[in-house]
Amino acid sequence: MSAPTGSTGPLLEVRDLVVTVRRAHREVRVVDGVDLAIGAGECVALVGESGAGKTLTALALLDVLPQGARASGRLVFDGRDLAALDPDERRRVNGSGIALALQEPAGAFDPVYTIGEQIAESLRLHARLPRAAAWVRAVELLDEVGIAGAAERAHARAHELSGGQRQRAMLAMAVAAGPKLLVADEPTSALDATLRVEILELLRRLQATRGMALFVVTHDLGVVAELAARVAVMYAGRIVEEAPVERLFARPAHPYTAALLRARPQLAVRASGAAIPGQAPEPGRWPGGCRFHPRCGLARERCEHEVPPLADLAGAHERRSACFFAEEVR
Amino acid sequence: MTELASERGPGLSGIAWGELRRRPVFRLALWALAALCSLAVYAPFLASDRPLVLSAVHRDEFDRARKGLVAPGRSLASLVADGHDAYANRHADPDAPTWDDALAAEGRAIEARLDVLAESLDAQATPVLDAARHGVERTLELARSGRMDDARRSADVSVELAVEIGRLLDPASVTLTPVLSFPVVAALSPLEVLLQVAWAGLLVALVRRRATMLRWVALVAVAAALARAFAGGHAGPFDTAGFKEELTSGGMQAGLAWFAPVPYGFAEQHPEEDLRPPTWLASAELSSAGAYVRGARVPRPDEVTGFVPATRPVDVRAGEPDVNSPWRHLLGTDASGRDLLARLLHGARASLAVGLLSTLLLLVVGVLVGALAGTFAGRTDLLLSRFIEVFVCFPVLFLVLALVAFVGPSTWNVIAVIGLASWTSVARLARAEFLRERERDYVAAARTLGFSWARIAFGHVLPNALAPLLVAGTFAVAGAILVESTLSFLGYGVRVPIPSWGSLASESRDPTHWWLLVFPGACLFVTVLCVHALGDALRDAVDVRGGAR
């Protein structure tokens, strides 16, 4: 499942994505020049603290930014420049090309309709199925995501389901129209530990059986380790490191990544990890130079003035880091 | 899918319905309004100058047809004698009917008269009519195929036959058979039939709580209306067929004549009974000469001239209660001697139709504008909101009056004008609801699934925002009924002689004719009260924040 970037290029290519948000009469760059590529069938994770711009990055991929937020940059999906599509075609990419599993499954369903009706609606729109066939397919999908008694539960409304079932139903709705890329925004943050394992298992299964690419946005390194083949680490609106997952865990190439890994609670050591000193900067009030330098142990004079580019690491394939002193990171 | 779904627990609408049904005020208002609507829908069966069922010998009609047979026969013969070219020379005017048309018209006239004759005759007398029919058909055929000599001969034979029939079927010598007919039903328009069948079905479905029946109801209603449309020949609302006059004069001899409970048409006049108070009052008593017996209206000789105002005896027609029966004019009559109860029953149609249809219109327009403003916030919203604000600056009543003055008073115009003048409050409400709902996650989820804005706005947001809009719509019904009656009161409403409650109230402003003000006013009051009670109950039921439950 490691990045099969074929000759046709990646499934989704993001170039210089910038998302600005209006805040108190000021345009704030919350996502500041993100480059990313996701191959077909690949699983990529985007990790970072809250406020780093992960969720807005995910929403920008589907052109569903909230009121007041605007995105610029180049998105090429499946060989098509999304910005060049007319609005109707762009809209149709959502659901059938790229789908999103929202962070909060409780609100993702329209309370007026049953979950079956809503999954069927997506099928009728994208797969052009007639009403009865769409319903049958919706029940199959609910069964596929492991909802017991799917034919029965399809008649339930979202508030009648348990949290885990809701999450499953939402995944069923997201993958209903057979997207090539599923974006999962914090897929497990609303769940308790046992459910978390089941949902991650389900995500892996859905990805494998459907040959779907998966883009997981999370702050949870555990999720990354479970699911992803490749990781991009985001800090203060920028990607600071990108690497295959085992190598990132084995040897981080950016001080922020290293700090994140240290901060992770580890059972074996029986210690709650070391907190990263200082506070994550507020969007728009980013320090100059390397944005991590005020919290960085390796920071030197150069880091305060010069912005380190996200560059290929010398001698390491598929690894990129935005640190001048990547070699020194421990 | 729907059948399966209905086996499940109650949906949202089911929950709301259960909540509403527990409220006695709601149930009372609902039943009162249902009763009012029933009165309006079935008004022709309740108040009509036509009999519901009539089995009668149409003596006058028969005689007219008998005597009228010869004239079209003669003109048919002369048309044939002229021939095509001579006729064309004489009628060079391009608007004049062509020879073929003239022939066909005469043929139809004869056919119609033969039909009338055949209807009242038993089978043994019909061979001669059939012979006449054949003669006419043959004449037409021959004339059209150009065999003029044969046609001329045939036409002459037909004329002789017509004269013969006229002599043979003298009403004195033949016995006529009574014809069974349903004059009220015959006067209904297809739209009325549609409404009446649909309303009956709706009531049955409501009482038996079977939502699945509604599909059948709609089907049956449409079928009945189509049948009515194809049967054809329905009379207009102003067709005063004169059944009562003919029955009274003996031109029509009834074996059986069932009249509606109120045996008056809404446009039927009794000038000798003008402004008569409700007949159960002592002051309404009339002498056999038609003079009031008690009170201020008793005719007195003029002090100077000794002249006694003339009175006319009341014309009691067939099917009507006796002159001084309390049932004769239960709610009195207006200045033309039209029965007020009959006019109130028919007036309910105009008032309720205007109230409901203009509300439907204003809901559609308001929700559309509000949805656009709420969905495309920003510049569109700014533009639409300012437009609404400008619109609100005009008082609704003056706007409506001005618009009606332009388009002219008629029921449909009044509906359109009221609907288009008072959509703003619904639009603002819809806008607020849409702006609130669009922030919710399910809207974002729908966008990630690639749903179009129209599908999201009208398929997802609208159902969620529907409850407050329905409440506003209910109150709008009451408002529209009042605006309509104001218009009608001022004379700009539905066109006379179609009654509406507002125009009835304006018939006389003399307090001695109190019944003309009190009864229409009471109808309006009860209706608006019920609608408001309904709206209140609806608002309480859907308002979670109010904490009423």
List keywords for this structure.
heterodimer, A: 330 residues, alpha/beta, Rossmann fold, 8-stranded mixed β-sheet, 4-stranded antiparallel β-sheet, disordered N terminus, B: 549 residues, mainly alpha, 3-stranded antiparallel β-sheet, 22 helices, 3% strand
Note the main sheet of chain A.
Answer: 8 strands, mixed
What pattern of helices and strands is seen along the backbone of chain B? HHHHEHHHHHEHHHHEHHHHHHHHH
How far is the N terminus from the C terminus of chain A?
Answer: 28 Å
How would you classify the helix and strand content of chain B by structural class? mainly alpha
Secondary-structure arrangement, i.e. CATH architecture of the largest domain in chain A: 3-Layer(aba) Sandwich
Report the β-strand fraction of chain A as a percent range: 15-25%
State the shape of chain A.
globular
User: Could you say what the CATH topology of the largest domain in chain A is called?
Assistant: Rossmann fold
Number of separate helices of chain A: 11
Give the biggest sheet of chain B.
3 strands, antiparallel
Number of strands of chain B: 3
- Strand percentage of chain B lies at under 5%
Average residue pLDDT of chain B: 86
- Which descriptor suits the 3D outline of chain B? globular
Indicate the mean pLDDT of chain A.
86
In which range does the helix fraction of chain B lie?
55-70%
